[in-house]
Write a structure and sequence with these properties.
This protein has helices at about 10, 15-25, 35-40, 45-50, 55-65, 70-80, 80-85, 90-100, 105-115, 120, 125-135, 140-150, 155-160, 165-175, 180-190, 195, 200-210. With about 230 residues, it is mainly alpha-helical.
């Protein structure tokens, strides 16, 4: 491990050496990994590494393995650029890991950032996964507030429904809403039926509306179940 001291950033961006770094993280005790975190933070490399094809894997593994005190500064740096990272193909995984492995305060702050910027984040292909992670790893009350933020924009829920991982995320969002709000959200999807019918994933969402109390809904038909 000592041979990587002073060269960690270079190694984690190498298509070959990054695998060695990952092995070090998976096998060594957390305290011995501090030099990796320190070198990432030394020159403000957090965002660059998090968005790197190979370096991003290192950031993710550090968040999962290290103690909160070790990754506090790294987590803060990620939160500062959270919106951009959410919308980045590789960077979004760092935010997902922060939502899963961060402290309660970090999770809360990250959720608030997503909630306040959900219009842009949820319209990003990578951001869909972040919204899904937030729905899995935050408190039940925070999930409701995030769902409400999504449905406030009548075009956002149908947009999400057409994303690759959209059906699962939409189902999670709709399910946590109180009954009357859930019915209105389903109505929005039904009214967007013509648009959703043209999408492979949108069709799945329409077919799943029965699980939210509407019965199976034809993409082009009006809602007839009292929603």
């Amino acid at each position: 491990v000592k041979e990587f001291h002073g060269h960690a950033v270079r190694a984690m961006r190498c298509p070959h050496a990054n695998h060695v770094m990952q092995k070090i993280i998976s096998t060594m005790p957390a305290p011995s990994l501090q030099f990796i975190v320190d070198e990432i933070m030394q020159d403000g490399f957090a965002k660059k590494i998090a968005t790197h094809r190979y370096g991003g894997r290192i950031v993710q593994q550090l968040l999962a393995k290290c103690e909160a005190a070790q990754t506090r500064d790294l987590a803060e740096a990620l939160l500062q650029d959270a919106v951009a990272l959410c919308c980045h193909f590789f960077g979004s995984y760092a935010i997902q890991h922060l939502l899963e492995f961060g402290t309660a305060d970090q999770q809360y702050r990250c959720l608030r950032i997503i909630e306040q910027n959900v219009g842009s984040i949820a319209r990003s292909p990578s951001g869909v996964g972040v919204v899904g992670a937030a729905m899995q790893h935050t408190s039940s009350l925070d999930r409701i507030w995030l769902a409400r933020a999504v449905v406030q924009d009548p075009k956002l829920l149908p947009h999400l429904a057409q994303a690759q991982h959209g059906p699962g995320v939409v189902s999670q969002l709709v399910a946590v809403l109180p009954e009357r709000e859930r019915e209105r959200a389903c109505q929005v999807l039904v009214e967007a039926g013509a648009e959703l019918r043209t999408s492979r994933y949108g069709k799945k969402v329409l077919a799943s509306l029965g699980s939210h109390g509407l019965g199976s809904v034809d993409a082009g038909s009006p809602c007839t179940s009292g929603c």
